[in-house]
Each structure stands twice: as structure tokens, then as C-alpha cells.
Known about the structure:
Strand content: 15-25%
Radius of gyration: 25 Å
Number of strands: 21
Shape: globular
Oligomer: single chain
Helix content: 25-40%
Mean pLDDT: 91
Distance between the termini: 86 Å
Low-confidence stretches: 1-5, 436-446
Amino acid sequence: xxxxxxxxxxxxxACDVLVxxxxxxxxxxxxxxxxxxxxxxxxxxxEHPRFHIGESLLPMNMPILERLGVLEKVREIxxxxxxxxxxxxxxxxxxxxxxxxxxxxxxxxxxxxxxxxDQLLFEHARxxxxxxxxxxxxxxxxxxxxxxxxxxxxxxxxxxxxxxxRLLVDATGRDTLVGGALKLKKRNDRHQSAAVFSHYRGVVxxxxxxxxxxxxxxxxxxxxxxIPLRGDVMxxxxxxxxxxxxxxxxxxxxxxxxxxxxxxxAAERMAGAARVASVHATGNYAYECTRMHGPGWLLVGDAYAxxxxxxSSGVYLAMHSAEQGAKAVxxxxxxxxxxxxxFRALQKQFDGGIDEFKWFIYRFTSxxxxxxxxxxxxxxxxxxxxxxxxxxxxFNARPVVWRLRIFRVIYALNAMGMWRxxxxxxxxxxxxxxxxxxxxxxxxxx
Length: 446
């Protein structure tokens, strides 16, 4: 190591906030903190544009994009999304339109190519005054005796150096820089899954205003997404149990196609399709960290938790946690003595909202949930509350949340009814089977 590089590490750059990770969460928190007058450095290991999955936004993203000042720019690169559809039996499907939501949130969202969306947000952060650096990897966080980040070591195009922030925001996504260093990242044992995905052209879209909808299919081992993008591109992925994924035998493309073809309507839509991107696979899909914050640091977006993206919640959760995180960081920098209580309140609020998504995700592939989504009924506004959840309206949303509690009761009653029916049918089969061996009641079977 040269003398200059030693000097760069021994004399760290000072800044108010260091944001590691230049995705939607990182760019959002960095932009808002720079606007508040703080000196902000943001490090991104890759160079934009770079491929990323997670292309479906939610209506609750729209107010955040508007507050950032990029809504119209996103409109230019996006496909209008009016709702989400869930196929039922017989080739039919139910659409949950966002304009049926319980509260007056946005009634639309966009489907976006993430390489375009992420680059747009990153460049916007730079325009807002963020010192945004690409091709720069944060390799290590050194903590002081109080557990606060003392130095963050980084490697960029010009070599190694160090930074000394007053506060560190980890927005590194699945890399979880701080979560990994402190061994906070834990696999979500309640929802283990993996995904295989790619992009295709020539996939049949829905008709009319439903053309921009995301479609969520169930298959025998999980679920699939069909997300329409610009340029006749469709993002398609299959989320599967780890056991089923082992059957791919190293051929991810054949595995993905085999899974798609197992659902007749999905197979029909793929009749004229051609793959236009690489096939990607990822495992250990859902995880979370045991805490969101510590002395001098905060986790936002996927660096804190990643839930199965069944309801397109990923980008929204990242940007919501980043926006609320920016408010918390600003407050902490102004009143350092309140740091712990400010961050605790942030985590409590965020955990409460994310749990609403988790409850539905854990049960989505069950027969009961399939029945309820195929036969929606707006009793006491419950269906509209479910639409609100699908739109992302789960934070500080009491009118929505108490109706979602009623939905849980409806779910439990339906599940109990299905269980009793199954038990009654099983007992009937047992009686008939025993009767078949009784000489007085034996019947011929044609």
C-alpha cells in the first residue's frame, strides 16, 4: 500500500452522514438529508445503470416520489399500473383496483425497469447536493468502545480511503454491511423460499386498463409474478420452496420455463415469448435483522429486512423506511441525547406496518386465502382494506388495520370450515371403505 493510501486511511474524511448503498433506499435518505442541510456522502459499489429485480411500485410510493420531486420523471420511464390481478379457476382472474382502496391514497403506481429507476434516483440525489460516489465499495466498519462507527473503510476508483461520519446509514440491501458485521441478519424460518427470474418479450398482456397490472399466479410449489415493462418486456419470476428449487439441476432457464408451463393460463400467455435477459436465481429469500439501529447507525430498506415480494412491497418498504429514517436521522443530529428513543420509535412503527404484509404472505398459498381472494366481499369495508394493504397503506393506518383484523377473523372461520369439511369427507370415505368389506352392503363399481 502506498504512502498516499496509508494517509487517506489514517486521516478519514469527515461528514455528517455516510449512506452506504445507492439503491432506492440509499438515494431517498441521502436526498432528504442533504436537503436538510447536512453533509452527506453516498457510496455505491456498482455503476449505474445496473440490473436489479423488484420492478413493481405501489400507490403509496407515489407521494414519496412527489415529495422527492421525481414523480413526473418516473412517469416517463414507467408503465401505468392500476391494480393487481389474481387468477382464479377456469382462466378467469380477479382484479384488485387501487381506486377501490379504503382511504384516499393514490389510485395508481408504475412498473419500472430498475436500472432506469435506480439511476434516476441516484442522479437526483447528486443534484440535491449529495456527494454520490459510484464504483466504491465500503469494505469494513470499525466501531469504537461505545459501539459507534469510528471509521468506514472504502475502496474506490482511486484506491483505499476512510470516512468518519457522525451517523452511518446502511442501505446496502442484501449485503447488510452493518448487519453482517454485527451478526444481526437472520433467515426468516416462517417463509423460506428462493426465486428464479428473467425478462421476456412477446408475452400476452391483459386487455384495456388492466394491461399494466401485475399478475400473481400460484403454482404447486409457490407463486409467480408477471410484471409488464416498457418496450414489450415482461418481467417473470417464480418464487419456490427450497426443496423444489433443488430440482433445477443447474439449468435455471429450463426450470423457470417448466414452472411457468405448469400453470395453463401462464403458459398460454408465453406462447410467442422470447427471453431477452439472463436468467437469475437467488436463495435465502426472506430475512430480517434482529434490530434496526444501534449507537450511531441505522438500517434502512433491505439492509434491515426483506419480505417475500408477493405484493410488490419491496421498493415501497425501502423508500418508506428511508424517508422516515431521514426524519429520524435529522432529529438525532439536532438532538443527540434523544438518539435511542428516536430510533426505537422508528423501528416500532416500521415493524408494525411490515407485519401486515407478512401475515398475508405467510398464508397466501393456502386454500383458504385462495378462496377468499377468488370471492372478495366488502363486508364492513374489509375488501377495500385489503386493497389498501395491496396499495401499501399500512403505516399509521388505523381504519385499514382494524378492518384487516376482521379479515383475519374471516380467514380463521373459513379455514376452520374447510378443515371441518375435509374431516367430514375423510370420515365419510372411511365409512364407505369399511362398508365395502361388509357382505351386506358391498356394492359393484362400474
